[in-house]
Amino acid sequence: MSNYRLTPSLKFCFTMQNDVSNSFLSAIIDLRYGGEFMNSKEGIQVNNCLNIVYMKKDDFNKVKNKPKKKGYELIYLITGERKYLVNDTLYKISPGTVVLFDNATNVKTVIYDTAYYEQIVLHFYQSDLDDLNDIIVKYNLLHCFNDGIKMVTLDYQHKEIIENNFTALMNYIPTKSLFDESTAKLTIVQILSLLNTQIQNSTLNEGAMLGAINSKIAEVIMYINKNFHEDLTLNDMAQKFYISPFYLAKKFKQATNATFVQYINALRIKKSKQLLVQSDFKIIDIAYTVGFNSHTHFTRIFTQFCNETPTQFRKEHLGNDHSNAL
Q1: What is the mean pLDDT of residues 249-263?
Q2: What is the mean pLDDT of residues 3-18?
Q3: CATH superfamily of 213-325
Q4: Which of 73, 117, 141, 291 lies at a 20 to 30 A Cα distance from 266?
Q5: Are 74 and 13 in contact (CB under 8 A)?
Q6: Which residue has the higher pLDDT, 89 or 288?
Q7: Architecture label for domain 10-201
Q8: Considering the entire predicted model, what is its pTM?
Q9: What residue spans in the chain does CATH classification 2.60.120.280 cover?
Q10: H helices of the chain, where?
Q11: CA distances in angstroms from 108 to 23, 129, 180, 219, listed in the order given
Q12: Whole-angstrom Cα distance, residue 170 to residue 165?
């Protein structure tokens, strides 16, 4: 997700190929080309809680802060590939896999993902389903979020069911009628029931696990994620975490698929995009804020990542309304 709401979450991964059901494909095309989701920065909501959002890479305005109360997230990855660092284990989220995270799992996104991606995010709180609580408790439907990370691969039949359920949610939620709200909640219950059954009847898929990485490397990644705006060098990190620069460079590249400098620059460019879209800061101030020591260097790195200058990026996303901040 680049990063977005890292809440306790259930994540769907799927790629659009010839076996995508026609109704689901039609719904996705509608989202891409001016459908209901694309007209709302916050997605579609019921009672200000239940929320479904179509997102693509760089949709910063749709990203909300991490909820403070217990919540669940279903993320259906339509195209692309993501990496997650869970404790000291790295996971590569690939098409066709259902990945489940429990409420306490410490999930960090390894953000060096230059490839384009699209996804659908469904977020809900347990309280959203209170009127169905008897069913949820009786069949323990939230069990799929317990006990750390789980992965299961769906066959064609069950992938089609998941797609049909998402298509139904796209139809029900926008109306905001009481009948369709109830139907949407029942659809979520159907999804939870399917996933719990699959977990019980299937061998959990470990194919997405790239393997445990050295705890020091995990610490380095998390430190960089928090302090990328500082003046960080490979030698400084190696000294700080008591490992050799050569070992750090090698293991860091294995874990993130990026060099030390590439990873830091990717974080800085991601943050700068958010500031370009969400603030009126001057571009030179954004450059210094995210960790670059000159406007020229920032523009050069930004152009390498985005194939356009920061000024062009801001104009493209905001028009001329923010010309005074250029």
Answers
A1: 89
A2: 30
A3: Homeodomain-like (1.10.10.60)
A4: 73
A5: no
A6: 288
A7: Sandwich (2.60)
A8: 0.60
A9: 10-201
A10: 22-32, 133-138, 156-172, 178-201, 215-227, 234-240, 245-256, 260-278, 283-290, 295-306, 310-318
A11: 33, 28, 35, 11
A12: 9
